[in-house]
Specification:
The chain has four helices and five strands; from the N terminus they run H-E-H-E-H-E-E-E-H. The chain has 105 residues and is of the alpha+beta class. The chain has a five-stranded antiparallel sheet with strand order 4-3-2-1-5. The chain is globular, with a radius of gyration of 14 Å.
Length: 105
Amino acid sequence: MIDNAVQVERLIERMQAQLPLAARMTPELMATLAKQTATLPASCKIMSIRYTGDEGGILCQLELSPPIENAIYASITHLRFDPRQPLTRDITAYQKHRVKHLRRQ
């Protein structure tokens, strides 16, 4: 197992209580999305969160400004958060743990 189910459940509950959450997309995610739309801001808002199991981890629905036609979903590992936000430390710990275990596999 990649994720600790109890820790992930707690993190998701805490994140859902803070929605919408401000985030920034990684350059890799922006490059992927740039193929679909011409104008992309680096910042976005997380509107909803789902856990897709060990296969996908925490998946976030993003809202961009200006809005685009299709809904955008991205793994939380492709997002960065303001260090002043109260959940940033927990989110970053989850991201590091997940990436580390994915590399091992």
